[in-house]
Amino acid sequence: MNIVIIGGGFAGVNLALSLGKNKQYTITLVDKNNYNFFPPLIYQVATGFLEPSSISYPFRKLFSDQPNTHFRLGKLLKVVPEENKVVLSNGELTYDYLVFATGAKTNFFGMENVQKNSTPMKTLDDAIEMRNKLLQQMEKASILEDPDEIRKLLTVVIAGGGPTGVELSGMFAEMRNGILRREYPELVGKGSEIYLIDGGDALLSPMSAQSQKDTYDDLRKLGVRIMLKSRVKDYVDDKVILGDGETIETKTLIWAAGVTAHVFEGLPAASYARGGRMLTDEFNLVKGTANIYAIGDTSVQLTDPGFEFGHPQVAQVAIQQGRHLAKNFKRILENAPLIPFKYKDKGSMAIIGRMKAVVDLPSPKVHFSGTIAWFAWLFIHLISLITHRNRVRTLYNWMIAYFTKDQSLRMIIKPTLRPEQKD
Fold first, then answer.
1. Closest Cα to residue 394, out of 37, 9, 132?
2. Nearest to 314 by CA among 381, 407, 389
3. Can you list the positions of beta strands (E) in 32-168?
4. Does 362 map to a domain?
5. Which residues contact 323 (CB under 8 A, 6 or more apart)?
6. Tell me: the pLDDT tens digits for 95-104?
7. pTM of the entire predicted model
8. Are residue 267 and residue 291 in the same domain, yes or no?
9. Number of structural domains found in the chain
10. Domain that residue 99 falls in
């Protein structure tokens, strides 16, 4: 059985690893990067609390003990279902079964200026770009005399009140209240502000009302300016323009306000649902196809009781779908009936700051916050990292940060420019 997997995130990697060393399968995983990374922690790379290698691992190293699993660096251009073929940026592959695990990309809702000038928070490239930008802006602000320019350089606006927006806001606030005062004393009192903007009635909308309240209160105590029922309309000339006409002057807009799935040439329009997600049946088979599957954020299944509008686009869904599809592929070889996918909700959590987090458990419904929730968040994210090496590196950096209330990973690292390039 020749299986081609497009995408090496939670869903794709768990599918490939679950099929393991079974010689009955030939697996090829295709990804535009040569490494897997852990998206829930990229904001800590962006803020200098983790190095990129702590949350990433090369695919070829990951699959080195699986002779039936191969890696291909490339981008998918189109699918040719009638020929069981995919066209990549660097060649073609044929398949018996094709699995889309391409995740989601940032959705800018058609706002060209926002897309051009803001910083998204989806990839390691985004995180490193943000870290470099923020550090360079603080260095620039430290030698300027114009108070308005300094204020714009130090002000951060984050659009999106989900886990990424909340966690970034809390981290920036603690950096401002601690690291900034120690390492940039000349900038203290110069107008560093952190805005968190969301169009809904509350932060962390999928979580419980108590988690939303605890998050709101904790961020306010940290000095974050929270603006609910507000939407970013444009970002022009260092001004974030809101829907009501209000403006915020800043050189840093971080976009964490929405995602959309990738749409690929070759699949029928009936295969797609709202947001570009591929519509699948209870076995993750894409509608209108015979041997193409979709798992993780790129898929939407409307047949799971309790999730009539589809599953949430979170890591646990992707992990469970990847492992479940692996079991069904084994059943295909055995000519056994397939088992429908049913999502087991294990709860949700978000970290707000040092010793501050919120956790909701579904059954029985339990909410807790504070120190216990903070340790629970650390533990769950630590064991979810893909290798022991990643876990050790991350734990070490967290311990340093905990005991020193600081981290020493704030280096500006960027490619050397050739003479013909501009800085």
1. 37
2. 381
3. 35-37, 56-58, 69-73, 76-80, 85-88, 91-94, 97-100, 104-106, 119-120, 156-159
4. no
5. 14, 15, 18
6. 999 999 999 9
7. 0.91
8. yes
9. 2
10. 2-106+259-333
